[in-house]
């Protein structure tokens, strides 16, 4: 049979099975038998046409994470009918060309050509499976696809960086902060400008250095004084791959602080001229830029401007004020008050009894008719009284009084205190009284008032000489040097500014500014001297400032140094000894006492005295007042006694004490015994092995150099051993103690005491003092902040326990004892301590 098969069943029927996919008519012959005879006939079966469903076969593929693989899932699928097969679903989701389905650890996209594209997720490692459905247009079938995904390393990606800083300042850059690695691998910098680098290493990149830090950042340090942009290359690695990018740092120009040093030399006495020129001028002359007028026959009150004013108050009892500028003020009729105020003014009282005040400057004052009162004030003034009985006070500087007649017409008598009466025997000028007037000008010549009163002769002509008089001064030599710190030519040094100079002092060079400071060119610094009138001399602070300017951007930097200028005291008298053994006692005045040679006994008694023992073994006492007492050479006994004194032992082995008051006591050279005694004192042992004590009050006591015994005694004291192996004792009160360098022994005594132990402190022994009710603390650093606690250290308690411990402190039980050993080899032995801080 061609297109099927026939099976004889048990019940006598037959089953016809057509061949697969066959449709049409099939005829076969069959034979029947009755057991004896047979008969044959044909059977024809018509086979109808039906659709055969598709058949799928599982698919596999491999791919790296983050990558895609194309799969032809239907290539191994079949359809008996030969029908074309199409994918209609992915993991149960209907799809058409271009659709994408997330299948867990990747995505599947159906392509237009019937294939699919599987894209693996980044960093996934393993097998990902998904189902798919195919259709022949009538029926469907499901299949499965599996993709083995391998997680491979993704390359690091470096990106360019920028940074900025100012000249001479380093900047730290986190170059990897904007770099990426798809795997999330840690990135590290392996090269700078192509040179291998490891933690702590540095690479010169042209105009600076790049250092790789332990935390993965880099520090760019520009070359000294460099400004501009610097670019360097860096390489990062994820351990497998590398990537390179650029970093650019912009360095902004910044002016460097210049150096300034200033010192003053020995102050000497001198003289200088005061004032300018004066003459017997009796009329105003000038150019005026402003006019201010009153009204006639009213009592006006008018005010000038800061310019040069021409002012007419008009009739009436007026008040007129010139203000700044060279002013001309007319009072007119009436009893007027005219005030020239600042600068060089001309005042004309007119008729009436006027009050005329020149003020500062060189003024011309005309009384005119009436009984006038005039005060020239400061400056070189000229006064013409006119008719009437006038009073004129010249004030400071050189003043001229002008009379209309000849010298023979007047009788002049002294009243004392630079005062004179002038009687006009002819009556035209009246009877006048003058005070502090230096020159009398007559029609036949001029003469000083004192010479005229004593019968001197006049000098013919009109007085026009110098008004300069001499005043006693102090000359202060000042040495100033200044230089640029940046010497590459990019900066310039401006002029030097001095401030703090007294208003009545002058500088030998430079220009005085409106704010009272002085500007001096660098070329004029040599031989610079400050001149101060002795009559007003007082201590002052001199500040010197220099400014450097950066040419690139005009940035500036200023350095200021300040020194104290201590002026000599103007003493009422000087008492000087001889080379023998002198005994000198002062009075109630302020005296300068110099013992000179010999073993002297000197005492200032009352007043603010300066006492110098000089050479020899002297006994010096200040007495009452604020004194300065110096032992000088030799082994001296020096005491300030009452008042706030300064006491200096000088060279030799001296005994120095402050006495009552808040004193400063200095042992100076030698092995001295110094004590503040009463008051809040400062006591300095100086060089040598000294014994220094504060006494009563809250004192500061310094042993300074040498192996000293230093004690605060009563009060809350600060006690410092200084260099050497010292014994430092606080005494009563809440004291602060430091041994300084060397191997020291410190004893706080009673009270809440604070001890300092820092670098270079040596091997110290510290005792807080036994007893309850106070806490003694050891600070593990010097007073200047250098911390020995930064070294490794070990605390060993021989008595007591640790009660509390945290970052920066340890609390101990009362009066704990023990040692601290430091990695630098130093050791601290302590007893009676309750707390450590660092």
Description of the molecule:
The protein is mostly beta strands and 838 residues long. The protein folds into six domains: 4-47, no CATH class; 54-150, Immunoglobulin-like (Sandwich), CATH 2.60.40.10; 156-252, Sandwich (Immunoglobulin-like), CATH 2.60.40.10; 290-442, no CATH class; 470-565; 716-838, no CATH class. The chain is 1% helix and 46% strand. It is built from one helix and 81 strands. The protein has a 27-stranded mixed sheet that branches. Strands 29-31-33-35-37-39-41-45-46 form a nine-stranded mixed sheet. Strand 11 (100-102) and strand 12 form a beta hairpin. The chain is elongated, with a radius of gyration of 55 Å. The model is unreliable at 274-283 (pLDDT under 50).
Layout: helices, strands, pairs:
Blueprint: E1 4-8, E2 14-18, E3 24-33, E4 38-47, E5 54-55, E6 59-64, E7 68-71, E8 78-79, E9 86-90, E10 93-94, E11 100-102, E12 106-110, E13 116-120, E14 126-135, E15 140-150, E16 156-157, E17 161-166, E18 171-173, E19 180-181, E20 188-192, E21 195-196, E22 202-204, E23 208-212, E24 218-222, E25 228-237, E26 242-252, E27 259-264, E28 268-274, E29 290-293, E30 301-303, E31 309-312, E32 319-321, E33 328-330, E34 337-339, E35 346-348, E36 355-357, E37 364-366, E38 373-375, E39 382-384, E40 391-393, E41 400-402, E42 410-416, E43 419-424, E44 431-435, E45 439-442, E46 445-448, H1 449-453, E47 469-483, E48 491-499, E49 506-507, E50 511-512, E51 518-520, E52 529-533, E53 540-550, E54 556-565, E55 573-576, E56 583-585, E57 591-594, E58 601-603, E59 610-612, E60 619-621, E61 628-630, E62 637-639, E63 646-648, E64 655-657, E65 664-666, E66 673-675, E67 682-684, E68 691-693, E69 700-702, E70 709-711, E71 718-720, E72 727-729, E73 736-738, E74 745-747, E75 754-756, E76 764-767, E77 777-779, E78 793-799, E79 802-806, ...
Parallel strand pairs: 6-15, 17-26, 29-31, 30-32, 31-33, 32-34, 33-35, 34-36, 35-37, 36-38, 37-39, 38-40, 39-41, 40-44, 41-45, 55-57, 56-58, 57-59, 58-60, 59-61, 60-62, 61-63, 62-64, 63-65, 64-66, 65-67, 66-68, 67-69, 68-70, 69-71, 70-72, 71-73, 72-74, 73-75, 74-76, 75-77, 76-81, 77-81
Antiparallel strand pairs: 1-2, 3-4, 5-8, 7-13, 9-10, 9-14, 11-12, 12-13, 14-15, 16-19, 18-24, 20-21, 20-25, 22-23, 23-24, 25-26, 27-47, 28-47, 42-43, 43-44, 45-46, 47-52, 48-51, 48-53, 49-52, 50-51, 53-54, 78-80, 79-80, 80-81
């Amino acid at each position: 049979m061609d297109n099927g098969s026939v099976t004889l069943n048990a019940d006598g029927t037959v089953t016809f099975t057509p061949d697969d996919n066959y449709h049409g008519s099939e005829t076969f012959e069959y034979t029947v038998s009755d057991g004896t005879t047979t008969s044959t006939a044909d059977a024809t079966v018509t086979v109808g046409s039906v659709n055969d469903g598709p058949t799928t076969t599982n698919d596999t593929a491999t791919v790296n994470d983050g990558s895609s693989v194309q799969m032809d899932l239907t290539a191994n699928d079949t359809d008996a009918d030969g029908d074309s097969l199409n994918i209609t679903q992915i993991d149960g989701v209907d799809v058409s060309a271009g659709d994408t389905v997330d299948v867990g650890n990747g995505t599947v996209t159906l392509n237009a050509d019937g294939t699919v594209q599987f894209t693996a997720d980044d960093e996934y490692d393993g097998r990902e499976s998904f189902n798919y459905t195919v259709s022949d247009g009538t029926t469907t079938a499901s299949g499965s696809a599996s993709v083995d995904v391998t997680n491979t390393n993704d390359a690091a990606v470096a990106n360019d960086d920028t940074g900025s800083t100012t000249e001479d300042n380093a900047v730290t850059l986190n170059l990897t902060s904007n770099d990426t690695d798809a795997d999330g691998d840690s990135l590290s910098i392996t090269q700078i400008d192509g040179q291998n680098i490891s933690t702590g290493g540095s690479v010169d990149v042209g105009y600076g250095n790049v250092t790789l830090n332990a935390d993965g950042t880099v520090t760019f340090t520009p070359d000294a004084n460099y400004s501009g942009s610097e670019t360097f290359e860096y390489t990062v690695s994820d351990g497998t791959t590398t990537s390179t990018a650029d970093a650019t740092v912009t360095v902004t120009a910044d002016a460097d602080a210049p150096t300034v040093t200033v010192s003053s030399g020995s102050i000497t006495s001198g003289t200088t001229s005061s004032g300018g020129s004066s003459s017997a001028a009796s009329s105003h002359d000038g150019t005026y830029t402003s006019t201010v007028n009153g009204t006639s026959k009213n009592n006006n009150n008018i005010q000038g401007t800061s310019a040069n004013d021409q002012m007419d108050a008009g009739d009436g009892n007026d008040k007129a004020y010139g203000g700044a500028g060279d002013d001309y003020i007319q009072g007119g009729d009436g009893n007027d008050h005219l005030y020239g105020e600042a600068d060089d003014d001309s005042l004309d009282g007119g008729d009436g009894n006027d009050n005329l005040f020149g003020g500062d400057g060189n003024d011309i004052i005309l009384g005119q008719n009436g009984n006038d009162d005039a005060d020239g004030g400061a400056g070189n003034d000229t006064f013409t009284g006119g008719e009437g009985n006038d009073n004129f006070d010249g004030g400071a500087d050189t003043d001229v009084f002008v009379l209309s007649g000849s010298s023979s017409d007047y009788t002049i008598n002294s009243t004392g205190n630079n005062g004179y009466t002038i009687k006009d025997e002819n009556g035209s000028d009246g009877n006048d009284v003058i005070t502090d007037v230096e020159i009398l000008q007559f029609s036949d010549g001029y003469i000083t008032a004192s010479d005229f009163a004593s019968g001197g002769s006049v000098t013919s002509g009109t007085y026009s000489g110098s008004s300069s008089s001499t005043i006693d001064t102090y000359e202060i030599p000042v040495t100033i040097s200044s230089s640029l710190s940046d010497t590459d030519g990019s900066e310039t040094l401006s002029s030097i500014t001095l401030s703090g100079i007294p208003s009545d002092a002058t500088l030998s060079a430079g220009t005085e500014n409106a704010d009272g400071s002085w500007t001096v060119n660098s070329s004029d610094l040599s031989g610079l001297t400050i001149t101060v009138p002795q009559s007003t001399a007082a201590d002052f602070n001199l500040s010197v400032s220099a400014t450097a300017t950066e040419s690139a951007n005009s940035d500036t930097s200023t350095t200021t140094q300040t020194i104290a200028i201590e002026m000599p005291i103007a003493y009422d008298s000087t008492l000087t000894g001889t080379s023998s053994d002198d005994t000198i006692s002062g009075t109630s005045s302020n005296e300068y006492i110099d013992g000179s040679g010999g073993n002297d006994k000197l005492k200032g008694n009352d007043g603010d005295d300066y006492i110098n023992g000089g050479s020899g073994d002297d006994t010096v006492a200040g007495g009452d007042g604020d004194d300065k007492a110096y032992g000088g050479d030799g082994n001296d006994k020096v005491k300030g006694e009452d008042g706030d004194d300064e006491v200096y032992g000088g060279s030799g082995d001296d005994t120095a004490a402050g006495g009552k008051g808040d004193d400063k006591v200095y042992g100076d050279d030698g092995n001295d015994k110094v004590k503040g005694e009463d008051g809040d004192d400062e006591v300095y042992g100086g060089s040598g092995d000294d014994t220094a004590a504060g006494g009563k009050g809250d004192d500061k006591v310094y042993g300074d150099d040498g192996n000293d015994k230093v004690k605060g005694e009563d009060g809350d004291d600060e006690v410092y051993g200084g260099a050497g192996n010292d014994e430092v004792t606080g005494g009563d009160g809440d004291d602060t103690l430091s041994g300084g360098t060397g191997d020291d022994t410190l004893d706080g005594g009673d009270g809440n005491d604070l001890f300092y132990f820092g670098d270079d402190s040596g091997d110290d022994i510290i005792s807080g003092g036994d007893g309850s009710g106070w806490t003694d603390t050891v600070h593990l650093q010097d007073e200047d902040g250098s911390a020995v606690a930064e070294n490794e250290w070990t605390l060993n308690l021989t008595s007591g326990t640790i009660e509390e411990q945290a970052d920066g402190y340890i609390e101990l039980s009362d009066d704990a004892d023990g040692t601290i050993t430091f990695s630098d080899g130093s050791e601290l032995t302590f007893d009676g301590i309750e707390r450590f801080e660092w």
